[in-house]
Amino acid sequence: MRKRLARLLAAASLCAAAVAAAGASLPNVPVASVDLARYAGTWYEQAHLPMFFQRRCVADTTATYAAQPDGTVGVVNRCRDKDGRFEEARGVARTVDGRTSTLEVRFAPAWLSWLPMVWGDYWVIALDEADYRWAMVGSPDADYLWILSRTPQLDPAVHERLVAQARAMGYPVDDLIATPQRSQDATPRD
To answer: What is the tens place of the pLDDT at every residue in 161-179?
Structure first.
């Protein structure tokens, strides 16, 4: 009886520790580093926080990155609008202070590059470091958040874990908008 009670108390304390840890806050910091060559390629958006420049996107949102010889990263963001057409934005990302997990992205014309306001923060705050199958991107002020996957559908358990992590980091995850991925390749049909 004592052993059973001891096991129950031990299990209860482990459960309490897990619940306490789940409610704990985490610092909003980027991962240590990102291999930009491995990060290159197409990512399927799974969810994002509302933002003005994605207001017309309803499905099939992707981000494609290409490492450039000058150390920057070419960016092509695409999404399908309510009329079924694709919208596309091209930009460039650069590292900040030599950190590959802390980038700034610009979609404005190159001649405006000197203006700080045309650069937006892009922090890789979670990453499947083994296989680069999923990533979560945020910002220092927790205003921007994207959950990304290499495949159109992310494992629901991974998605839940990333949302919990973002919540603990201070992101308003109750405002997340799920991104339907209706086409497997997200290429234009028009």
So the answer is: 999 999 999 999 999 999 9
